[in-house]
Amino acid sequence: LFVSERYSFLFQVVSGLVIGLVVAFVTLGVLKVTKTTLPRNELTDLLRTMVSSPAGLFAVVVGAPIVEEFLFRGVLIGLFVDIAPVSLLIGVNALLFMLVHVPQYRGLPILHLIIFFVGLLLAYLFVATGALIVPILVHCIYNLIVGIAMRKMV
């Protein structure tokens, strides 16, 4: 479930890191072009506080991606992959992923759209590789780069 036998371990790790970098910097570019900043609410304040400490940053960068990828991709897609069309699973999975993140980004549709597309990509990577390592690494790198940038967003 975590590492694919279809591809070499090195290929999976490098793919996850490179795709994560691309997605994170594209996201930051979109946020800059659209002049989007994070909303001020309890959840984003908590996130800002978390990414300001090493333990909190670790939870955001490593803990959340492992848990979210296992639940959203490993469990939700894994449960239905043999009984529903894969394209439907990927779309519904991305929608659910976005909905879970709506409270922290409420009022900012551009962030909801970004999270939806990130969810589509993560679900596709899981289906394409048959394992969680690539989406976990993409999610980790994404959270690291966006988390560091988030400390500066007002």
How many H/I helical runs?
A: 6
Tell me the fraction of residues in β-strands, as a range: under 5%
* Poorly predicted parts: none
Sheet having the most strands = none
- Span between N and C termini? 39 Å
Question: Which word captures the global form?
Answer: globular
Task: Provide an overview of this structure.
With 154 residues, the chain is mostly helical. The protein contains six helices and no strands. The chain has helices at 9-33, 42-51, 54-80, 86-101, 109-129, 133-150. α3 packs antiparallel against α4 (86-101). The relative contact order is 0.22.
Describe the structure concisely for a colleague:
With 154 residues, the protein is mostly helical.
Topology, element by element:
Layout: H1 9-33, H2 42-51, H3 54-80, H4 86-101, H5 109-129, H6 133-150
Helix pairs in contact: 1-5, 1-6, 2-3, 3-4, 3-5, 3-6, 4-5, 5-6
What attributes characterize this protein structure?
154 residues, 6 helices
